Amino acid sequence: MVDEPSKDEIIWESSLEDHPEYVHAIGMISIENANLESGLSDLFSSIIGVSPRVGYAIYLTPKSAIARIEIFENATNAAFAPKKRGGGDDEHKAKLKRARDRALKIAKRARTVIGKRHGIIHDSWGIDEKHGVLRYITGSDRLESRPVPLPELQSLVRDFRRLIIDVDDMRAEFSEHPPYMIDLRLT
Q: Does any domain span residue 106?
């Protein structure tokens, strides 16, 4: 374990040091974001019909989370597009549309929570004793800030976790019964 520096050695420290509940919530947002990205790469693998290892390599190549979601959306639209000639009856085409719509809804939710995470992780944090914890907005609004109640951060953690469960449920379903496969059983 590293020894704590003496007071004389400390040049700067975050004002959030005295608010471990905020540090915990912000840390959990980062952790759940990584869990969501892993789940989305698995779902992506199921959608495009490749092994999770290959899907992970493709999905996580772009360094931007929004670029990854765009790849996910484009792959979803391509994988679940009904074939113009052949490729199933109206029931199968409806199955493809439902699968596409569900996956695109997942992508939309992911874009929302990842966008919120981006602001939380990349903005500067400080304490205003009058208002509580503030998140300072970057860029031209740098001098403006707003109180960020702890329940807002905890709610985002819950949103990530709900989405992770939905992604995993869809991945399991698509792995077992890929929507692009036509049911060839005799009825």
A: yes
pLDDT in tens, 55-87: 999 999 999 999 999 999 999 999 988 765 455
| Residue 71 is assigned to a structural domain of this protein | yes
DSSP H or E stretch at residue 136: strand 132-136
Report the amino acid identity of residue 60.
L
> In terms of residue numbers, what domain contains 106?
18-176
The pTM assigned to this predicted structure is: 0.83
- Residue 132 zone, left/alpha/beta (φ > 0; ψ -120 to 50; rest): left
- Whether residue 4 lies inside any domain: the answer is no
The β-bridge partners of 125 are: 135
Q: For residue 85, what are the contacts with CB-CB under 8 A and spacing of at least 6?
A: none
pLDDT value of position 177: 83
